[in-house]
Amino acid sequence: MRDYLLRPAAYEELHELLGNPGQEFGQKVPNQRAPDHEFLSKNDQIQLLRESFLLQMVRDEWPNLPVVRERLQQLGLAPLAADDLRLQCAAVEVRMPAEIMSDRQERRNLLNLAFHKLCRETSSDWKGIYPFADAADSAMMYFLVILKPGAEHARKTRRFIEQLNRSIASELKLECVSGIGGEVKGLKRLKNGYTSCMLSWSLSSSGKKADECCSDLELSQAFTPEIERKLKRAVENPDMHGLRQQLDIMLNNGRDTTVFTFLALRLVLLLASIAKKFELGSSSLQRYVWNSRMSIVHAGSPEGVRSLLDELAQLVMEEVKKVRFSDGWHLIEAVRKYAGENFCCRLELSSLAELFYLNEADLPRQFKQHVGITFSDYITKLRITKAEQLLQQNELKAGDIPRLAGYSGFGSFSTAFKKYSGISPKEYRERFVQGRAARGC
């Protein structure tokens, strides 16, 4: 699905499927958007890697902050790694008319494709706005917006969203629902900003007024790193009594309704990340937990929210029990899965042992017994496989590929590549190009 969403839009086909919505759409899009078609086709791998990592940053558990900053640098997203970072998160959902929703899937796919492409093109005209999508929810697009002091930057996120909504209405003839989160300072508070953005979007989806939700001070005081650690420890141990005690403190009756809902959604985000970490062979639980956010907004009472949070926590704890307290191999498989999703980052066995409650001294032996190769060889295999995919994109510079595949420099990358593949990166690309030419591709 992600590859499909990143392909250049087939606007002639889209124009036909839309049923000729107007001469302006038919003429304006091909003429004005054609240069970006070429740009995206050359850089779809880089764009995919960037968007995938941004989604991981807001949804998943991080290895640690220095590793995240290092990966942002590798992906050409250095402004997001700045120490003085101030940002907002925004979400936009495109709404399909009933006649399109009842039409064939191909038409909806093309409209979602055009929506994503228009979001990326619009954000590319603004400095410091980074789009990303979730393939499981193709009607949504998210944005990280870097904020700077000065009058020219005032209401930057709001102005961008207003421009984007106008473009979607003009070019796609569709309506949108959007949400803008509160301003946050630093990467450590990114998930608070993302959660407040989802709260704003949820309120807008319900027809309620949704101004930019909550200040950074309000959010950071309501959900501190210490609170998150205690909640995480209770769920992963699993300790329902301890979790309920923490929720009693966090969700006390004196909370403002908006802050209360924010805290509930922030816990949903935490539960979804834990579900992803421990769920094996399926993603149904994490999807169920994440999709419960609208139920939180519509719960109607604090008691209803608490009941739903209890249900979600129980489900996640059951999954944790199956993995943590089984024969041990399930936990090593969870480590392997986590490494497979984060191999481009700098991963250390000590961090993984702590993350999954394993003995650091035993983990190397257990991993090799389960996977068949050492942890370092497994990471190398994944990185070289990714590098081979990138080398097949002939437009990418060879010097860019090491950092995209998770290497700090070309020397270490070239040595590892030749050891694993038997040839140099340059030879691999040349052979691939020759083979494609021989096949007439």
From TrEMBL:
Is Ion transport set as a keyword in this record? no
Q: Per its UniProt record, what Pfam families does this chain match? A: HTH_18 (PF12833)
InterPro entries named in the record = Homeodomain-like_sf, HTH_AraC
Q: Which residues are in the HTH araC/xylS-type domain?
A: 333-431
User: Which keywords belong to this entry?
Assistant: DNA-binding, Transcription, Transcription regulation
SUPFAM superfamilies associated with the record: Homeodomain-like
Q: Does the keyword RNA-binding apply?
A: no
Q: Name one GO molecular function term.
A: DNA-binding transcription factor activity
Residue ranges the record marks as coiled coil: none
Please name the PANTHER family in this protein's record. ARAC-FAMILY TRANSCRIPTIONAL REGULATOR, HTH-TYPE TRANSCRIPTIONAL REGULATOR EXSA
Provide the protein name: Two-component system, response regulator YesN
